[in-house]
């Protein structure tokens, strides 16, 4: 019998000092669908507690540390992390999930439908081809996507002077000298936070 996602989630949220009230049910829906679709689409190599820790609780903890609010664009959303957990656990009004691959975009639309959320908007597109389909945002998140100069230049139309990029990665070197580092307690990845005009 596989471990209960809700029990693992509760443990992880408590471990990171997050309040679980009001978000457990939606996060559990996301986790169960991620595990179910992963069997066909290979959305992640993670499973069980490690999947919940890396793809759900750690992004949620980062969102709390940064007190994220407003509108988020999640680039290369793929399996929905970090965009979906950030949206569900922060004070974000909308999240734009940007994913070029058809089947992964279908997964994201399915999750948005199950969560019954008008605040989750899926764009099947490469970041470089978004044009004006995504408005100016307050935050840009990336995980398993390298912030190359070409990509960041393509994201400039989404940004304003206060927009911050959050890059969750195992890379220990800063993407720019002015980037701030957030170490995740007990986790391997770090989060680098910077503005596009600092790159």
Q: Would you write up a description of this structure?
A:
With 199 residues, the protein is an alpha/beta fold. The chain has one domain (5-198): Rossmann fold, CATH 3.40.50.150. 38% of the residues lie in helices and 20% in strands. It is built from six helices and seven strands. The chain has helices at residues 5-15, 24-41, 48-66, 83-89, 102-114, 149-155, and strands spanning 69-75, 91-98, 120-123, 139-143, 164-169, 180-183, 190-194. The protein has a seven-stranded mixed sheet. Strand 1, helix 4 and strand 2 (91-98) form a beta-alpha-beta unit. The longest helix is centred in the N-terminal third of the chain and has 19 residues, at 48-66. The chain is globular. It starts with a helix and ends in a 5-residue tail after the last strand.
């Amino acid at each position: 019998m596989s471990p209960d996602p809700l029990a693992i989630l509760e443990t992880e949220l408590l471990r990171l000092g997050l309040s679980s009230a009001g978000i457990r049910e939606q996060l559990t829906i996301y986790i169960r669908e991620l595990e179910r679709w992963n069997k066909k689409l290979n959305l992640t190599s993670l499973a069980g507690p490690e999947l919940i820790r890396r793809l759900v609780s750690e992004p949620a903890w980062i969102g709390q540390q940064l007190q994220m609010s407003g509108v988020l664009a999640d680039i290369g959303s793929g399996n929905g992390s970090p965009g979906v957990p950030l949206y569900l656990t922060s004070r974000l009004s909308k999240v734009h999930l940007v994913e070029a691959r058809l089947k992964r975009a279908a997964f994201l639309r399915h999750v948005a439908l199950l969560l019954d959320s008008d605040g989750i908007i899926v764009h099947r597109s490469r970041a470089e081809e978004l044009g004006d389909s995504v408005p100016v945002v307050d935050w840009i998140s990336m995980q398993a996507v390298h912030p190359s100069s070409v990509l960041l230049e393509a994201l400039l139309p989404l940004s304003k002077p206060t927009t911050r990029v959050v890059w969750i990665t195992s890379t220990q070197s800063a993407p720019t000298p002015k980037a701030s580092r957030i170490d995740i307690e007990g986790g391997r990845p770090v989060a680098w936070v910077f503005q596009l005009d600092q790159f």
